[in-house]
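Exercise 3.2. Students should predict the tertiary structure of the chain below and write it as structure tokens, then compare their answer with the key that follows.

Predict this chain's 3D structure.
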Amino acid sequence: MSIPYLDSYYPPIPVLEISLGYPQEMLTHGSLTALIDTGADGTLVPQSLIDELGAPPIDQVRVRSHWGEWRHAQLFTVDIGIGAFRLPAIEVVGDDQGQEIVLGRNVLNRLRLLLDGPARQVELPGL
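Answer key:
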């Protein structure tokens, strides 16, 4: 599977098309663009999408933004689909301030992917 970088950012940013669902149910929210952030420890999902899924919070966490500010947020469990591949029970932070899905290392470390910057492509061998 090969996905082009998103050119609406400068410099262009690697992305994946994903779907979301509540664990052990169908992936109901599909074809969502998620930014790949190899420097992020965890994954962020806009709180509005979490609310649509009806996922209950499982914990409160303290997160730090890339600007260094600390804030409290809620942690949720969702399934993430990438093509026909499903990652079950992924812990994500509900982001009540942003509108972008950010895939952090808790998801990326489960995937084999190649970020081909010169070609502006994300390659997922085997998917």
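Discussion points: The chain has one domain: 2-123. The helical segments are 47-53, 105-108.
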